[in-house]
């Protein structure tokens, strides 16, 4: 299991130190939640902040864009040093074009689905993807409760992946903790995002290790 702590739950006044701490504590990827106050009710940070943080670690920068019309900013996020750029299916009218652009920029391309969005909406584009991010909470805030029907969705996605012999990463984001990690792994999740579970624990290393199963 790859573990991607979300800095949404970090101390924003000490972001560089927080990233260094999770890097040392064994984080595989650094998850960056970009919110625009339109696609989701909350506003966080954008490409300039990511660019400034890029010098703090060599770990994979995993940008989760919860923004409307993300095409407007793909160049900026690529130039800021993001390795994965994940957009929401619900925010893209021409998803194929958006994914192609991310790849042209030399980055890994991901698509995220809200809890109420069906896997069928990305079936045609699965062969083009490096990652599928299944939201297990409604995006916008950290610390929400895991939505149980995500398990069935992960399993279904795993079957689609196997049947079509594809190799995208199956990532799950929202409400992940030491209690549900085993079932997530069993269903086929390969990478978890964890915000409050990691940053809410005084021992980041112990929290991250408990997710690496
Ligand atoms: C939610 C974000 C998540 C969030 C997860 O909109 O996409 O990455 O930080 O936080 P927890 O792990 O606290 O649910
Ligand atoms: Zn996220």
TrEMBL record:
Its cofactor is Zn(2+); Co(2+); Mn(2+); a divalent metal cation. GO terms for molecular function: D-ribulose-phosphate 3-epimerase activity; metal ion binding. Keywords: Carbohydrate metabolism, Cobalt, Isomerase, Manganese, Metal-binding, Zinc. A divalent metal cation binds at residues 31, 33, 64, 173. Binds 1 divalent metal cation per subunit. The active site is at residues 33, 173. Catalyzes the reversible epimerization of D-ribulose 5-phosphate to D-xylulose 5-phosphate. Belongs to the ribulose-phosphate 3-epimerase family. This is Ribulose-phosphate 3-epimerase. The lineage of its organism: Bacteria, Pseudomonadati, Deferribacterota, Deferribacteres, Deferribacterales. The gene is rpe.
